[in-house]
C-alpha cells in the first residue's frame, strides 16, 4: 500500500500559489505593484508616489509590521527596496494564510460530503 505523502515545501508552495484564493490575491497585489511601478512613466505630478499606498493597503495587516520596522530602523527614511520587499513578503505571507484557510474550508466540505454519502 503506497501512501501519498507530500513534502512540507510542496505543501507550502501549493498553499501559497496553487489555489484560487491565493492566485487571485497575488494577481491583485502584483497588478497594483505593476501599476505603481509604471506610474512615474506616465504621470509627472508630485502626487505620483502616493500610488504605492494601494499595494501596501492590499497587503495590510502584514505590511503594518514592515512599516513599523522601517520606522524603527530608519526613522521614517527607509529605502525603497525595504518597502518594496516588504510588500512582496507581506503578500506571500498573506497568500499562505489564504491558501491554508482555503484548504481547511475545502477539507471540511469534503468531510461533510463523505458523511452524508455514507449515511
TrEMBL record:
Superkingdom of origin organism: Bacteria
InterPro entries from the UniProt entry: DUF7942
Regions crossing the membrane: 20-38, 50-69, 81-105
Pfam families xref list: DUF7942 (PF25637)
Entry coiled-coil feature ranges: none
Alphabetical list of NCBIfam families matching this protein: memb_SCO4225 (NF046119)
UniProt keyword list: Membrane, Transmembrane, Transmembrane helix
Protein name: Integral membrane protein
UniProt KW Metal-binding keyword: no
Amino acid at each position: 500500500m503506497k501512501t501519498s505523502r507530500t513534502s512540507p515545501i510542496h505543501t507550502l508552495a501549493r498553499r501559497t500559489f496553487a489555489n484560487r484564493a491565493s492566485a487571485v490575491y497575488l494577481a491583485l497585489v502584483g497588478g497594483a505593484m505593476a501599476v505603481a511601478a509604471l506610474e512615474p512613466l506616465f504621470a509627472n505630478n508630485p502626487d505620483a508616489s502616493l500610488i504605492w499606498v494601494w499595494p501596501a493597503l492590499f497587503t495590510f495587516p502584514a505590511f503594518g509590521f514592515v512599516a513599523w520596522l522601517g520606522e524603527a530602523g530608519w526613522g521614517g527614511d527607509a529605502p525603497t527596496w525595504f518597502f518594496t520587499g516588504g510588500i512582496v513578503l507581506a503578500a506571500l505571507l498573506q497568500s499562505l494564510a489564504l491558501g491554508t484557510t482555503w484548504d481547511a474550508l475545502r477539507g471540511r466540505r469534503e468531510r461533510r460530503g463523505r458523511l452524508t454519502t455514507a449515511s
